[in-house]
Amino acid sequence: MFLLAISGRLAFLPARPLICLGGISYPLYLTHELLGFRLIYWLESAGVPPWVNVAITLAAALLLADAISRLVERPAMHAIRNLYQQRVVSRHPV
């Protein structure tokens, strides 16, 4: 991978969809299993064809991860950074 990266053969990696997936990777990691198993089971018992089932489950997992990232993770990181900056400034006044 390193050789590919330095030779410029991984130029496609900064593509916008991959950057978006990277941004939601942690919430996706945390939620995909529970959501996936339950939704697949429910859709299967409702008679939904397997490929449609997979597409719906994938879309739901990505949407949930994006919502968690936008509504929870990013605001929390912003608040944590602000708190940290306030503590650093109060300890080391300029």
Notes on the structure:
With 94 residues, this protein is an all-alpha fold. It has one domain (15-89). 81% of the residues lie in helices and 0% in strands. The protein is built from four helices and no strands. Helix 3 (25-45) runs antiparallel to helix 4 (50-91). The chain is flat, with a radius of gyration of 20 Å. The chain starts with a helix and ends with a helix. The model has no long low-confidence stretch (mean pLDDT 89).
The protein's oligomeric status is: single chain
Q: Largest sheet at a glance? A: none
What's the N-to-C terminus distance? 44 Å
DSSP strand tally:
0
Tally of alpha and pi helices: 4
* Overall tally of domains: 1
Beta-strand proportion: under 5%
Helix/sheet category: mainly alpha
Mean pLDDT: 89
Quick synopsis:
By secondary structure, the chain is an all-alpha fold. The chain has four helices and no strands.
What are its keywords?
flat, 4 helices, 81% helix
Write the topology of this structure.
Layout: H1 2-6, H2 16-23, H3 25-45, H4 50-91
